[in-house]
Write a structure and sequence with these properties.
This protein has 13 helices and ten strands. By secondary structure, it is an alpha/beta fold. Helix 2 packs across helix 7. The protein is globular.
Length: about 325
């Protein structure tokens, strides 16, 4: 396991380059909401990208940075790469939302769209890095990325005076980097909330791992929570970390995700993306047994046409 103090070291390295995102309490739902959609780049992914890139030496940086992304991690790596003056190449699925692809390019990334889903993009990015000598920046399978994401846990603990009263922490799960980072930070805490992973029924890979120990046989379908799509790489360090830190994994439907996006807008005037909405969706649907709870709203980079259609209930 990764030492907990690595998270504090990451916070010291990157905190001046981040927004401390706000937390609000929804009295009706008995739910704290950590608004990482208000982070620079509109996503928590900047945290892990900065921690990884700023930890590289000059020889490594000179080889160039290669990553794969559904959009948010690519933006984070692009910002981190620009901060140290190096090139960033992103491989993304040709199904990635146009708003995220354009944002990566505007931030200076060279973006290659790969036919198929996230898994195909990830495999090509890893292969390219291996063949060219570039430094591959995984969205989740990297201790420095994980501890960068874990700085959210440290920040939340400082922001909420009654943090020990929180019973459940609802964390969106794709590759598992965010939950692994949070679990790393809290691993030695005598009291911590139950760590509950949440993902779409359309891509239940972590759910299958948690309950059956395997991802084999999982059938994935399209989801508006595209940032959580794709299986976890079989060699990923996050697999054992998830199994150690998770207390439960809950699935939400596409309709429940849409309802959460509408709720965030109508109640809190916040624009959030599908991947960010799953924890809120679980609480709205009454699937969380212990409250008060907290969820991390991981990002707000949603295609405008999709957002407008959800708000109008098209």
């Amino acid at each position: 396991m990764i030492p907990a103090d690595w998270v504090e070291e990451a916070a010291a390295l990157i905190s001046d380059l981040l927004n401390q995102t706000p937390i609000t309490f929804d009295e009706k739902l008995k739910l704290f909401l950590k608004w990482e959609n208000q982070q620079k780049t509109g996503s928590f992914k900047l945290r892990g990208a900065l921690n990884k890139v700023l930890s590289l030496d000059q020889e490594e940086l000179s080889r160039g940075l290669i990553t794969c992304s559904a959009g948010n991690h690519g933006q984070g790596v692009a910002v981190a790469a620009a901060s140290v003056g190096v090139r960033c190449v992103v491989y993304a699925s040709d199904h990635a939302p146009a708003v995220k692809v354009e944002a990566m390019r505007e931030l200076g990334a060279v973006v290659h769209l790969v036919p198929g889903g996230y898994v195909q993009a990830e495999k090509l990015a890893i292969l390219t890095a291996r063949e060219t000598g570039g430094i591959f920046i995984s969205p989740y399978n990297d201790p420095l990325v994980i501890t960068g994401q874990g700085t959210i846990g440290a920040e939340i603990e400082r922001q909420i005076s009654g943090f020990s009263d929180i019973k459940s922490m609802l964390v969106p799960v794709g590759g598992g980097g965010l939950l692994s980072g949070i679990g790393t930070y809290f691993q030695h805490h005598a009291q911590r909330p139950r760590l509950i992973g949440v993902q779409s029924e359309a891509s239940p890979f972590a759910h299958s791992l948690f309950f059956t120990g395997t991802q084999e046989g999982v059938v994935e379908t399209d989801s508006i929570a595209e940032g959580l799509a794709g299986e976890i790489a079989p060699d990923s360090i996050t697999i054992n970390m998830l199994l150690n830190y998770l207390d439960d994994v809950i699935l939400v439907s596409e309709d429940e995700i849409r309802q959460a996006i509408r709720y965030a807008w109508q109640t809190h005037h916040q624009v959030i993306e599908g991947s960010a909405a799953v924890g809120l969706a679980a609480q709205l649907a009454g699937k969380i047994k212990l409250s008060p709870a907290l969820t991390i709203i991981t990002g707000g980079n949603i295609q405008p046409e999709l957002f407008n259609a959800i708000i109008r209930r098209d």
